[in-house]
Specification:
Helix 1 packs across helix 10. The protein is an alpha/beta fold.
Length: 266
């Protein structure tokens, strides 16, 4: 059974949790269909030495729906407003999947507010075939007649289906608001190339992490983004797929903790 975390809300209706203390402020953004609880292991581990903020995407969890067209730049504007409402001058941002696209957009458009950026299972310049497939899924989801079980087949291997991570993600997919899910997925499906050329200009420590079994957010994508970013590094977790922060929580939390100590080259 899902254990709901105690949340607060910004004036504009964004739901978030705030744990820990420290000089480094880390903001976590989950993926489509998930909510703050999908970051549970990272909140627990990283808040021991840092202040960790985790947010519900618009129309997910307890956040108000997006008040604009379902396009990636509008999600980036939403996130930048949240950072302003929380009163932060600059933050470290880590996003998973759709959250990774938002994190990339924040890095591209708000460089003065960024200390470090981490993309977990981020997509980057999909092939035409992959883009066609994800856009077809977006249209199906937007129609309201979509299969909430289908993502599990892509996100988990067969030997992970008896685990706690699988059960949590399945429950979150069953609970997510259909309209919020559809809006975020449409932005996700059309957003992989919006900020894809930003990385040469992002002069901040940038981590690109994925699982070697993730066929949509591939190791090659992570490595290509890392090569493009002046301060980029790629981490590929062996034997895991899309929900790597839940299926390999210790390894992912350790990679994030290490990233939070990186200093940009002078």
């Amino acid at each position: 059974m899902l254990q709901t975390l105690h949340r607060s809300k910004t004036p504009s209706g964004a739901s978030y949790v705030d744990h820990g203390t420290g000089e480094e402020i880390l903001v976590l953004i989950h993926g489509v269909g998930m909510r703050i609880e999908a970051w549970g292991p990272q909140i627990e581990q990283l808040s021991k030495g840092h202040r960790v903020i985790a947010v519900d995407l618009p129309g997910h969890g307890f956040s108000a729906p997006l008040d604009a067209r379902p396009e990636l730049p509008n999600f980036v504007v939403w996130f930048a407003r949240l950072v302003d409402e929380l009163g932060f001058d600059a933050v470290n941002v880590a996003g998973h999947s759709m959250g990774a696209l938002i994190a990339a957009g924040f890095a591209a458009t708000m460089p003065l507010k960024l200390r470090r950026v981490a993309l977990l299972n981020g997509v980057y310049k999909r092939t035409p075939t992959a883009r066609q497939a994800v856009e077809a899924r977006a249209e199906e989801i937007f129609s309201g007649a979509f299969d909430r079980e289908a993502p599990l087949e892509r996100w988990f291997s067969s030997d992970e289906k008896d685990g706690a991570a699988y059960r949590l993600v399945r429950e979150l997919l069953q609970k997510v608001d259909a309209g919020g899910y559809a809006a975020a997925y449409r932005a996700f499906a059309t957003g992989d190339a919006v900020y894809s050329d930003c990385w040469p200009q992002v002069a901040r420590p940038a981590l690109f992490l994925t699982g070697d079994g993730d066929k949509n957010s591939t190791a090659e994508m992570a490595e290509e983004m890392a090569r493009a970013a002046p301060e980029g590094r790629a981490v590929v977790v062996k034997g895991h797929r899309h929900m790597v922060n839940l299926t390999a929580p210790e390894e992912v939390s350790e990679a994030l903790a290490d990233w939070l100590t990186w200093q940009p080259a002078q």
